[in-house]
Structure formats: C-alpha cells, structure tokens
Amino acid sequence: DAGVIQSPRHEVTEMGQEVTLRCKPISGHNSLFWYRQTMMRGLELLIYFNNNVPIDDSGMPEDRFSAKMPNASFSTLKIQPSEPRDSAVYFCASSLGQLEKLFFGSGTQLSVL
Amino acid sequence: QKEVEQDPGPLSVPEGAIVSLNCTYSNSAFQYFMWYRQYSRKGPELLMYTYSSGNKEDGRFTAQVDKSSKYISLFIRDSQPSDSATYLCAMRPLQGAQKLVFGQGTRLTINP
Fold first, then answer.
1. pLDDT, tens only, B9-43
2. DSSP three-state, residue B52
3. Which residues face B103 on adjacent strands?
C-alpha cells in the first residue's frame, strides 16, 4: 500500500499567486481530511469529506481557501490569492470511517514570499 | 483557553529512561483519546488509541486516561533513540463534532 500521497512536497510562491495542493487517499478509504500545521497553532483541521462530500469546512480560514474532491481517489486544496501568513505544512489524511485512525501523507511545505 | 493543552517541550532524556508525556483537556465530552507520533518532515502516525478511561499497553508504550482529572498520559519504557519524535495527543467526543482536536505536540529527544 502506497499510503496517502501528496504533491508537491515543497511549494515556494509569491504573494498573490494561486496555489494548488493535491492528495491521493488510500484506496478504499471513504473519509479525507485537510490539516494545516504551524509552530504557533499546531495541527488544525481545515475541511473534511465523507464519501466525496464536504461535511465540515468550518476550519477553512477565509474564502481564499477552497477544497474539492471530484472522486474517491483525488482531492485538491486551493489558495487564491496566497498570502505570506498561509505559509505552513499542509497535510492530507484519510480514514476508513474511523475518525480516530487517520493515515497522514508526508505533507506539502508551503512558503509564500 | 485551548480545549487541549500539551507542553511543547523540548524534552530530552537519556536512552533507557522512562518517558512521561501528558495532555490536559477541558471538554468533558471527549471520549476517544489518541497519541500520534510525528517524525521530522513526516506526517503524524497513530501510536495508541483508547476509549474512555483506563490503561492500554502496547509493547513499551502505555496510554492512561483519567477522565475525572481530564488528564491523559503516554509512558515510554526503555526509551530508544528511534523514539525521538514529536508526540501529539488527540481526542474527540462520542457524539457531536466529528473531528479530532490535537494538542500542540511535545518534541522528544532520546540521547544515546
């Protein structure tokens, strides 16, 4: 099993640019989560999907953030326009119905200059 | 006040020592308690998972939950350099908001 796959591993962009982060969950998992991790705020849930449907997006900080899950094997998190305060590590995680047992990807390190 | 409080450390101990990691929480509705381990430049991975109160042991790791004190602990016996990582506690209620609340994480280093 390849685990949760995220791309890119690193992204450096300039303020105002659009950023798209990608995630492929573990095959067969029906829940997908996007988290953001910073030193100051720790690990924060941004949004999660169940069976490709967004269930809770209350953690999405602003309208600049959007997430989609067009099918069971792919999700994107988009930031448009990006700002320096968006710099963080973004993790995607998936699970098979059990919120306690999340499988995380290796993350995308985003730097907005 | 955060729902889950965890000392970020860093914590540094010699190899072979017993390590105690702790979290406190304020929401009495929390029923599921987890410990995740995160190595540098990696995503967190589930280490231990307990429901409600009591102890759970898995090899060198023991998780304890004291709901009366709203306090959870993770003990590592015979600590090894490979245990060096950040340990995050996480918890969620039985019903209601179906999402985990994570602690800040404690950075642990085991010195050979």
1. 899 999 999 999 999 999 999 999 999 999 999 99
2. coil
3. none
